[in-house]
Each structure stands twice: as structure tokens, then as C-alpha cells.
Known about the structure:
globular
Amino acid sequence: MEHFLEKVREVAAKRIVFTEHALEEMNLEGEIISPDEIKEVIFTGLIVEDYPSDKRGHSCLMFYHTYKGRPLHIVCAPRPDYLGVITAYVPTLDKWLEGFIIRRKLK
């Protein structure tokens, strides 16, 4: 997975493109997520889930506590010339265990 993380960061250094869905999630009232926070997750965070067979192409879920002091998840997929950010959100304890890197098991 380390090689994939390097690839994510390499293409993100070229260009980051946000899907419409990502922009909608980033602009939710009360949880505005800035492009700087997205970059912080990409360049400092870790991959917590890997999706090699995703229909949009190989993608991953990344996590980091941003400079704003909050946890942040992004799903992104590297392309040859850019990193596509598919979604971004503040994870919650109803779906994630404390630490926000392990999903809760659904009952």
C-alpha cells in the first residue's frame, strides 16, 4: 500500500480535481472542509482502506486529524495527471471506532 500512497501524493502534487459530490460534501453547512485540509490529508495522512477493484478505478480512503483539530476522511483515486477527490467528510463515532481508522461492525 506504501507504493499506492506514493502514487497518490505524486499525482496530487501535479493537480487535484474534486468531483461534484466531493464539493457538495465539502460545503455542507457547519462542516466546511477547505482545500487546504484536503491537501493536509493527502500529504500527511494515511490510507485506512484500499479499494483496488473500485468501479472508478483503484482508489482509497485516507484519514488525518487536520490543523483545525478535527478528523477528516477523503476518498481519492489517482489518474495519470491528477488526483481525483471523490468525497470528503468528517467521520463520526456511530460508523467508526475511536481513532476513525476502523469501521464499526454493523449489527
